[in-house]
Amino acid sequence: MDTTMNRRRLLTTAALGGAGIVGATALGSIAPEDAFAAPSLTVEPGAVDPHFVEGRVTSITGTMLLVTSSDSSLHSIRITDGTSIWKLRPTTFDRIAVGDGLYARGVRLPDSTLAAESVWVNIVNVRAHLAAVGRNVLHLEHRGQRIIGHIVPGTTAAVYNNTPAVADLSLLRIGRHVQVIGAWHPDTNEIDIATVYAAA
């Protein structure tokens, strides 16, 4: 059976009020790295992926998010019982707020609403210079700007040289370049760190 069509039917059923939808994360990965994945193979190179939305939440009505993209276009995103939500860690719809930024992937409904499969809230992917390490904080420099990266006990992990993620950040070296995936504090220069990638 075509899994794309299966997913489309399940999400459409959920968005239109059907019962028995599968639980969150059953349809797609919630891994933060997947927010930055390449468009679907069905999208022509250079074309806009109709199943992807980025922007900031401007209003929330019931389970519908109104999102304004960086190109000022407006999008309606429907959250269903099958939507997986990430905001530094897997979370629930009530954690999304007006002003949050997000990436969303899902299925377009006939009315152009996106029935969301996965939503990543305030997610950032930053390549930066590690300027300093403090108590539960990394000071990063990115394109001449200072970013404060908060270490979140029990959540923040490091990946050294593509090895499995570990909680030990002691191998991070000041002066080296790192890649950080985390959750932005809207309208600030601060992020909570999910994963920092570095060379040991």
Written account of the structure:
This protein has 200 residues and is mainly beta. The chain has two domains: 3-121, OB fold (Dihydrolipoamide Acetyltransferase, E2P), CATH 2.40.50.140; 123-198, Copper binding periplasmic protein CusF (OB fold (Dihydrolipoamide Acetyltransferase, E2P)), CATH 2.40.50.320. It contains one helix and 13 strands. Strands 1-2-3-7-6 form a five-stranded mixed beta barrel. The protein starts with a helix and ends with a strand. The relative contact order is 0.16.
Strand content: 35-45%
The CATH superfamily of the largest domain appears as Nucleic acid-binding proteins
Number of domains: 2
The helical percent reads: under 10%
Class of the largest domain in CATH? Answer: Mainly Beta
Structural class of the helix and strand makeup?
mainly beta
Helix count, DSSP H or I runs of 4 or more residues: 1
Shape: elongated
CATH topology of the largest domain: OB fold (Dihydrolipoamide Acetyltransferase, E2P)
Strands side by side in the biggest sheet: 1-2-3-7-6
Number of strands: 13
Q: N- to C-terminal separation?
A: 45 Å
Order of helices and strands: HEEEEEEEEEEEEE
Task: Note the main sheet.
Answer: 5 strands, mixed, barrel
